[in-house]
Amino acid sequence: MKKALALVLAMILLLCSASFAVAEDAKTLTVVAWDAGTTPYLAAQKEAFEASHPGVTLEYIDVASQDYAKKTSTMLSGGDTSDVFMVKEITDLLNWQAAGYEEPLNSYIEASGYDLSGFAGIESNYAVDGEQYALPFRSDFWVLYYNKDLFDAAGVDYPTNDMTWEQYAELAKKMTDADKGIYGTHYHTWLSAVVNWDVCDGVNTLIDGNYDDLAYFYELYQDLEDAGACMPYNELKAAGLHYSAAFENGNIAMLPMGYWFVSTLIGAIKDGTCSFNWGIVAVPHKEDVAAGSSFGNLTGAMINAKSANKDLAWEYISWLAGEEGALATASTGTRPAWVSDAVASAMASADGFPTDEASKAALIPTAVSVEIPASEHSSEISTVLNEEHSLIMTRESTIEEGIAEMNERVAEILG
Amino acid sequence: MIGSNGRMVKRSRTRYERRKELIAYSFLAPNFIGFAVFTLVPVLFSIYLSFVKWKGGAFSTMEWVGLGNYTEIFKTAKVAEKGLGYLFTKVDLGIALKNTVFYTLVTVPLTLVCAIALALALNRAVKGAVGFRTVFFFPYVASMVAICVCWRFMMMKDGPINQFLMALGSGYNKSWTADSTMAIWSIILVSVWRNMGYYMVIYLAALQGVPADLYEAATMDGANKAQQFFHVTLPQLRPTTFFASTMLIISCFKIYDVVAIMTEGGPGRSTKMLVTYIYDEAFTNFNYGTASAIAMVLLVIVLIFTLAQFSTESKYANN
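Predict the joint structure of the above. Result:
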């Protein structure tokens, strides 16, 4: 009896190890990403990568975008062994680096002679003390989306690549038509959608401890909200309305949003979720800031220090960030971090991308600042700013009170 | 055992007894091992963590800071300088404590009152009592996420609840969850609604145990229904009420899900609770040390109520 039991157990063990061996042979690379089911560029990248790497299967582990930072951090601190993690925010990268979750990349770069010049220096945001920890494959900056059909119907000229915030506010009010339920513009609930414009001058940052300048953008917003030119923050928050659903509904004339929304919008029009003509222009600027200045974020990929397939993972992220991956990314209308002539023309010729000259010109910004620079205190400062942001937006604090609190609380963090 | 001469005598245990003991332990073992691995070790680890600075990753990166995390979360230097008011109006921990205590103080009595009322109403032979019991118990087993999203909609600016209040003559028109004063009430309301069904079932069971002759005697003495309730029913329910309130207090201090879905701790810090604060410190800011220190504050609070529960329970048992 005992012998039989031992035999059965041994068989089970054998079977287990055998199935592991099979899995290793087929070479599956697990990649943790957000909204994997609905993001077109992830599908295009997977297809192109698997085509050029026979025998390798890419498997996305999907995490909802709004929970990405928390979920992935919990996974990593729990010793998750997924091979590659997409990096959504630079602050995540910094936190993960400090915690030792990331495989340092310099040795891989040297060994393979990888050329970083295509990133035009932007990859340095992923380096800590000279050591590279991730490679960027997307570089999104914010642009202004607009619904051409609404402008045509109202007989109003389209927005341009050179508008001040005052001109933009005027235009938003002009396009608003309460009777038809048309809003001139739309602000998503994020702090970045409302006041991050302050960093476009390349001097201000959100971690410098002085937030007095944000008042200009809060006043601009409250003026538009009072005029009924955008949906009220409180309603958006209570309804949990996503900006894509709002814009795709077809009753919003303008939407300042990150470049990533291009591929979502192209996809939505292709699958019939919505049908209208649209275009992009550069975001508005303050009088004293150059037209075409924006802020943005990098998206990259890093190798999990606990991965068992590090060489394959490097093969993947170097491919993804390089020209081949960039072409796959650009084919869906997403802006890759790697920029070459081939990539630039691929972007403009992406199926579904608007064909007007202004939209093409908006592809090349004058200057792009980082949304929130990485620092030891970035995430704590973000928490404070977001808390005070919600108070200002719900009008629980006046703009002055809210900004005074931001200044005071961040000063405490900075010590 | 004590021998006839009054001295301890070591009695050699029989094989049979030892075997019986081993069997008993072997039945306890799976549960105890589970407790040790998944509860005891993490708790001990967390106590240790509250004395170190650690951003996660390799254990070698831990840096011993003694009580540093505690002085940091209580902002002792600032509080000593500016007074206790500063702790409860400006410091994250003070605000989270204040919110959690307020939430508990309101939620616990409100839930108990609702639960007793429901239990009394459904304890009679009402038509469809079983159906009603199921209806009231349902929120307790339903998905919290779905429930909270529904409530958030109901509490919107032009939502059904505000419309109802407006019909009653209230001039209130804001989203509850976007109002610093009302946000915590929205959480209290949902919590009470969710928990009352569970405690109703407990009270229903307890009501069955109240001897009918007590009511008979009270009626003979001329007590009316209200007097019967206050002098017979309530005292008879006391052990149940004590048990229910302790369990509720503990679960209230650990409130997380409703807050995370309904308000995310906002607006501002108006619904920041101890557990949401721990979560933010640990998984947004990666300060495992301070997060563990906050967890210790919570542990002490919960421990006090648990010990009170245990000691009183043994008192009831002895009587």
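Chain B has a mean pLDDT of 87.
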